[in-house]
Every structure is written in C-alpha cells, then in structure tokens.
Design goal:
With about 150 residues, this protein is mostly helical. The protein contains 7 helices and no strands.
Length: about 150
C-alpha cells in the first residue's frame, strides 16, 4: 500500500461523522491559510526584505516537498492551494488588515471548532498519534476535488 493511501485511510478513520467532516472541510483550509499568515507576519532580516521573501515563503518549500513526495497530483493540488493562500494574504495586506492579528484569531477559533468536531466524532484528532497528520488534513480536504476531476492521487 502506498504511503498516501495509508495516511488517507488512517486520517479518514477519525473523520466519519458528517458534522465533523463539515467542520474539517472549513477549518482545515482556514488553518492552513492562517498558519502561513502567521509565518508571513514574522519580521524578517533585511536580506529577505530585499528579495521580498518571508518565513512563509521559506516554510512552504519543505511543505510542498512533503506533498510532492506523497504524490505528484497531491503536490500539484497543494501548490495551487498554497498560491491561493499567498494571494489571500496579499489581499488582506492591501486592505490594511493586520495579518498576524487576523491569523491568530482565526487560528484559535478554527482549532476550537476542530476539537468540537472531534468531540462530536468521539475520536481524538489524528495528529495526537502522528504529527504528520497536520499536513495530511489539507490533502484529505483536497482529495474529493481531485476525485471529481478524475485525478487519482
């Protein structure tokens, strides 16, 4: 069994309840977004400013490497999702919204919802077993879109 299939199967085990699934389909992409928002908001050294690079840009490299290692289609889908994240951050920034405050507030709220979902489900979050499930969650949300497009991961 491929690693991606094993991970998706294992993640799905604790995400069967329809309410929990709905919560995760909203909260997981939001958490992905605001995690990079928080990294984006960390002040950077002058050399990074010169190249318009933030810690979010640096962090996305190993994250996308992980996704491409799982599978090419997953890596491509998560690259698109990541581009949308950076585009969204720029929109917030242009609107004069504090990226770190917005991201921190939404991060806390979305994690509360995640834990409510798991309380409803009656199962612990997968990442309590293995931290890599923090990166599998976004794939689990994107996977049905890939299937609708007839793209196997």
């Amino acid at each position: 069994m491929r690693n991606i299939d094993r991970l998706m199967g294992e993640y799905s085990e604790s995400h069967q309840n329809p309410t929990n699934k709905m919560i995760h389909n909203i909260a997981v992409p939001a958490i992905y977004f605001v995690t990079f928002g928080l990294l984006y908001a960390i002040p950077v050294p002058e050399i990074m400013v010169k190249f318009d690079v933030t810690f979010a840009h640096v962090a996305i490299i190993p994250v996308l490497f992980y996704y491409f290692k799982l599978s090419g289609p997953v890596g491509a889908a998560m690259t698109v999702m990541s581009i949308l994240v950076f585009f969204g951050i720029k929109i917030l920034e242009r609107q004069g919204i504090s990226i770190w405050q917005f991201s921190l507030a939404l991060f806390v709220v979305m994690w509360i919802f995640q834990f409510i979902g798991h309380k409803i489900e009656g199962k612990k979050p997968s990442f309590f077993k293995d931290l890599q499930f923090l990166l599998v969650g976004p794939v689990w949300v994107v996977a049905p879109l890939l299937k609708k497009m007839n793209i196997s991961y």
